[in-house]
Amino acid sequence: MNPLKYLSRNITLFHFTILLLVFSVSIYISDHPIYQTILYIRPSYISDHLYIRHWFQIILLMKHSWFSMSDTQYHFYTASSEVNNFPEFMVVGMVDDVEMVHYDSNNQTVVPKQDWMKQTDAEYWEREFNNSQQSFKAEVHILKEHFNQSGIHVLQYIYGCSLDNETGQTDGFGQLGYNGENFLEYDMRTLAWKSLKQQAVFMRDKWNSDYDRLAFWKLYFSQTCIDCLKQQVVNGKSTLKRRVPPLVSLLQKTPSSPVTCHATGFYPSGVMVFWQKDGQDHHEDVKHGEILPNNDGTFQKSTHLTVTPEEWNNNKYQCVVNFTGIKYVFIKVLTESEIQTNRAGVALLLIVVVVVNLVVVIGVKGLYFHIILDIISRDLLSRLEVVVRS
Q: Which residues cross the membrane (predicted)?
């Protein structure tokens, strides 16, 4: 399955503000991976403010690492109007699981996020992003006028390409969203834009009547993006092609809590974490967590098993971790001696630290202050994964 096609069918373009927030809130509590703390926010908590209506999933995690023979390049654009203390325009560029470049309208400067990005032409990126900033600002104005709107509105765009290193097959992807709704999608078969909502038909017709724009995207997806991707993979090979195996632990907050199989510190993000009972895959009373980013560029994933001590004493339960690119299978057998627990007092302290850091990361008032209150008041603690070794 091509990851770009999967993305286009299953993900609505979410407000990029939240993407950046979730990506940056991963904090180290200490140098040991077990102490990593991740705050995971679902945008349904803030839908009243930002028009987000679906469960949030960080797009960068749905990429090449699940399809190890492919490399993928993405760009995420967000243009907004009347959002106080936040840039009107932002860009983040990704290669595979790695952020490579950042740009926003406040600084109007391209910021390389990797050392190997410094080998690229910064003036080219600045010129591209400056031009995009002006065109996106105009598009937001057109949309607001067309729908007779005022106030906060958000235009988002994700586009990219993928290269299968085994077959040489390439693919492209482009999708436009407005206020959290999918609007337009680029069709690689017809080489034209198609509307995903009735309200977007006017924009589809406008974009498809611009033959220079269509010619640009045809060339971009078939050649420009692929050439750029190949160069980025060469320049960043030591980062993009590295393999870091997971550290696997069994964790439990209290004797009555579910047992968590926690794999962390791995790269790339392709990993399967599951439970077995007496040698057979076990799905009953098992809850799977999402793959989440650590702040050092690695990832973590947890799978939770609800089981009594009597059950695991009478049966053999074990957590199995399969990791992309390594044939070795990581196994942790569930025994009392393998379980690591955390003190409630320490966990509470870490929760406070995370909330304080969240406020610092956001650093704005008004709309986002209400977001913080909303998050805290709506089951924040259940969305925190605080992993602490006693």
A: 12-29, 346-368
What's the number of CA atoms in the CB half-sphere (13 Å) around residue 320? 16
Query: 0.85 exceeded by the pTM?
Result: no
Question: How many helices (DSSP H) and strands (DSSP E) are in the chain?
Answer: 11, 20
pLDDT for residue 326 is more than 90: no
User: How much is the pLDDT for 275?
Assistant: 96
Interhelix angle 201-208/122-146, nearest 10 degrees = 140
Q: Which of 136, 158, 129 is nearest to 203 (CA)?
A: 136
The domains of the chain, with CATH numbers, are 3-240 (3.30.500.10), 247-336 (2.60.40.10), 344-386 (no CATH)
**Rounded CA separation 388/390 (Å):** 6
Query: Coil, helix or strand for 309?
Result: helix
CA 308 to chain centre: 34
Tell me phi and psi for residue 55, to 5 degrees. -60, 140
The amino acid at residue 42 is: R
